[in-house]
Amino acid sequence: MKIHFSDADEAFRAEVASWLADNLGGEFEPLRFRGGPGDEHSFPEQRKAWERKLAEGRWTCVGWAAEDGGRGLSISQQVIFHEEYARAGGPGRMGHIGEGLAGPTIAAFGTPEQKRRLLPGIVAGREFWCQGYSEPGAGSDLANVKTRASFDAASGKWRISGQKVWTSLAHESDWCFVIARSEPGSVGHQGLSFLLVPMAQQGISVRPIEQLTGTSEFNEVFFDDAETAAENLLGAPGDGWKIAMALLGFERGVSTLGQQMLFHNELEEIIRIAKANGAARDPLLRQRIAEAWSGLRVLRYNSLRMLSGAQDGTLRREAMIYKLCWANWHVELGKLAMDVLGAEAELLEGGPYQLGRLQSMFLFSRSDTIYGGTNEIQRNIIAERALGMPREPRVRA
């Protein structure tokens, strides 16, 4: 595990910080610290323009191999980029799903033609992706998906029918990668395929889901005989589960350090308020702030340990504990924020009742232990896949 950075790494850190200082201003100044979890609905068009600005500076897909259009940066340099991006208040990435999930998966499993056709749009910040995994009856239990796909040999197209849910920014996306059941009568992990589906077609409708925060970054997506070309099947028919699991491994990649810097920014805001309003004099709150600070350092060291091996989509043991750890930590940080704010946590300035940054964080953090795999599912993964304990019985309808 590498904890310290070389002189060359620190020179690279200065380069990243300098570029962000020069470019994250002017028309992009309103985007600073905006568009993160719970705020992803904000400034979508401006953030898409920011993706193109990043691409001009070659700051998209920095960890991708050069042959895929990336910069091939070392793990150390990728960590530095994501940390400095968050430190500077870089907005939530509209291209995150494409850059962090779809792109690496296409690079790993796609044909040369698929990579040539699909990766450049992600690198250039021109094409945006969403994830078609969860369904009303298959959230954490992904193997229970019911969305169907069948290949029509006459037209050379796959036809897809079903429903996906909790699809982040589907209404802003050009493509969706979809796990669908392509073998009639199959159950569980078998008979699934991984399809790349264009969103701009009559067979797809998107309906927003209003959240506790009053925003609608999540959506339901309905596929009614939607189509995608034969060349948009990733891997072979039936490879869906294998590819889906590899994609989840990429999700535990280096961008987790950027996520932690966002957490650091939230904690710094809490500390600033505690000093200003006197909450820092409360010994119990001081203790909780110290525990939050310590917990964040533990998350960082585990991530560095997690990133010390091959970044090939394989879920190492260290990666399997990460979601459970950060979700619980962040929920407690939300509670701490409200207690430090005191009575102000219950107040809004007035209509249209725009939530404050920490109020929004607190409300959104209530979902942290659910999305991306519930805490219960995460504990099963740790027990069965990391520790090799007996699998619990599965009962399917």
From TrEMBL:
Residues 130-225 form the Acyl-CoA oxidase/dehydrogenase middle domain. Keywords: FAD, Flavoprotein, Oxidoreductase. One of its GO terms (molecular function) is oxidoreductase activity, acting on the CH-CH group of donors. InterPro entries: Acyl-CoA_Oxase/DH_mid-dom (IPR006091), Acyl-CoA_Oxase/DH_mid-dom_sf (IPR046373), AcylCo_DH-like_C (IPR036250), AcylCo_DH/oxidase_C (IPR009075), AcylCoA_DH/ox_N (IPR013786), AcylCoA_DH/ox_N_sf (IPR037069), AcylCoA_DH/oxidase_NM_dom_sf (IPR009100), Mycobact_Acyl-CoA_DH (IPR052161). Its cofactor is FAD. Residues 7-125 form the Acyl-CoA dehydrogenase/oxidase N-terminal domain. One of its GO terms (cellular component) is plasma membrane. Residues 238-386 form the Acyl-CoA dehydrogenase/oxidase C-terminal domain. PANTHER family: ACYL-COA DEHYDROGENASE, ACYL-COA DEHYDROGENASE FADE29. Belongs to the acyl-CoA dehydrogenase family. This is Acyl-CoA dehydrogenase.
